[in-house]
Amino acid sequence: MESKNIRITQRGGDLPPVSSVAADIISSATHERPADAVLREMFARRRDWSAQFKGEVSAAVFDYFRWYGWVKDEATVESGLRRAWKLAASFAENPDAILPEALKDKAVPAWIGGEVELHDSWLRSLQSKSHLWLRAKKGQGRALAKKLEAAKAATLGLLPDAVLFHGEEDLFQSPEFHAGEFEIQDAASQMVGMLCDPKPGETWWDACAGEGGKTLHLSDLMENRGLIWASDRADWRLAKLKRRAARAKMFNYRAVVWDGGVKLPTKTKFDGVLVDAPCSGVGTWQRNPHARWTTTLTDVKELAEIQKRLLAHVSAAVKPGGKLVYSVCTLTRSETEDVVKNFNDSQTVFEPLPLRMSFLGEKESSRENPAAVKWIWPQDLGGNGMFIAAWRRKAV
Ligand SMILES: C[S@@+](CC[C@H](N)C(=O)[O-])C[C@H]1O[C@@H](n2cnc3c(N)ncnc32)[C@H](O)[C@@H]1O
Questions:
Q1: Considering only CA atoms, which of 121, 161, 162 is closest in space to residue 385?
Q2: In angstroms, what is the span from residue 276 Cα to ligand 1's centroid?
Q3: Per the domain annotation, does 1 fall within a domain?
Q4: Between the N and C ends of the chain, which has fewer C-beta atoms within 10 Å?
């Protein structure tokens, strides 16, 4: 993994070994300050490090946590890191070398077995790197793929503008990024926007808009026409949304702070409301392996209560005949099926809205569920896992 040549920083100094930088980051990562946040903070300080060096450090940190169940008892973090690299290399060569029982035992924490069925295909997918997906502007997927080095246009039926990126270049420096021609957005997240299926001229509410990943997609699908209320309880996230909206030339939105309480930010009745709720993020465990070892069952249970409240509160804002969509990038029963059941049991004005995702085939439709729900597993697309449910408010 490490080059034997002495490598130099962009300012002419020596670069430290990847393993020692990675070991420092691994040792300082905690539940409150996860590895990806530590990486971001460190990279923001070290502008003299090249994108390639930063990429190697990130990969090393994530390799360590991906193989943590196997290496956690090593004498030092650096020896654990070396073992993790060896395991990653042998798994890449022959994934079957790791037996199903070892995966169940070591790839995930024990508590998750009570919340997610431990399919071998899911566990196996967690041990490799996830894909990097871009979302091009509506109708521009193939054109963007041609422009970007090493990008490959994906053909996923419902996701015509998803572009799979295999390259090494720093996409944030590319002219296409600065021109607002694409966003980095996971394929499963793109699926949420596609299933919302908003029409130009409609009025939507993205109730947990965060930094605007899905708001931007909804706006693009609406051809910048109509209006989207984008709310979040974190105003710093909405500030980022505004910067992204400016770059994407998205104008049909209004950003407002909303704390998730029963008092809604507007009296408007919407054609559609999306609740992309805060969740435990178990669906991102392939992309973010440190989270496997910091997320707890208590987090899951607490988040499920917040999700139930958010759904109940926003449902009041859906107009008769309008859509309500719930999405979470997690796969736990408490935050998916149980939230849906709770909503179905607590009201009579919404009916399940069937969702169709042709590329996933018919295996989904055989599941018995009280509502129209879709599961996307990391192994389906090589991206995040996601759960989506939708309802329509009955016309009065
Ligand atoms: C999954 S993230 C949203 C991601 C965003 N939709 C996107 O696609 O980029 C969940 C968001 O919910 C917000 N949030 C957390 N608790 C909330 C609450 N009680 N009320 C409203 N928003 C909340 C968080 O600040 C976070 O931005």
A1: 121
A2: 7
A3: no
A4: C
Q: What is the pLDDT of residue 336?
A: 98
204 and 82 in a common domain: no
- Respond yes or no: is residue 329 known to be catalytic: yes
Residue from 196, 208, 279, 329 carrying the catalytic annotation: 329
Query: How many domains does the chain fold into?
Result: 3
- Domain for residue 194, yes or no? yes
Q: Who contacts 307 (Cβ-Cβ below 8 Å, separation ≥6)?
A: 275, 277, 278, 279, 326, 328, 335, 339
Give the tokens for residue 93. Answer: 């060569």
Asked if 209 and 315 sit in the same domain, the reply is: yes
Same domain, 275 and 161: no
The pTM assigned to this predicted structure is: 0.92
What pLDDT does 359 receive?
46
Distance of CA 75 to the CA centre of its chain: 34
pLDDT for 42: 93
CATH of the domain at 165: 3.30.70
Average model confidence (pLDDT) across the chain: 91
What residues form DSSP beta bridges with 275? 326
Look at residue 188 in the predicted model and tell me its pLDDT: 94
Cα of 239 vs its chain's centroid, Å: 20
Q: Which residues line ligand 1 (CB under 6 A)?
A: 189, 208-214, 232-234, 237, 258-260, 276, 278, 306
What residues make up the domain containing 175?
132-184
199 and 175 in a common domain: no
Answer yes or no: do 49 and 145 share one domain.
no
Answer yes or no: do 218 and 307 share one domain.
yes
Residue whose pair of structure tokens reads 């996923």 in the numeric block: 156
Distance (angstroms) between ligand 1 centre and the Cα of 210 equals 5
Query: In this structure, are 359 and 339 located in the same domain?
Result: yes
> What average pLDDT score do residues 216-244 get?
97
> pLDDT by residue (tens digit) across 140-183?
998 999 888 777 777 677 788 999 998 877 888 899 999 999 99
DSSP 266: -
* Residue 371 pLDDT greater than 50, yes or no: no
Ligand 1 geometric centre to CA of 206 (Å): 10
Of the three residues 150, 184, 218, the one that is the final residue of a domain is 184
Instruction: Round to whole Å and give the CA distance between 327 and 278.
Output: 9
The closest-lying atom of ligand 1 relative to the alpha carbon of residue 329 is: 1
β strands within the chain, DSSP E = 132-136, 151-153, 162-165, 182-184, 203-206, 227-232, 253-257, 270-276, 318-328, 350-352, 372-376, 386-393
Closest C-alpha residue for ligand 1 atom 13: 208
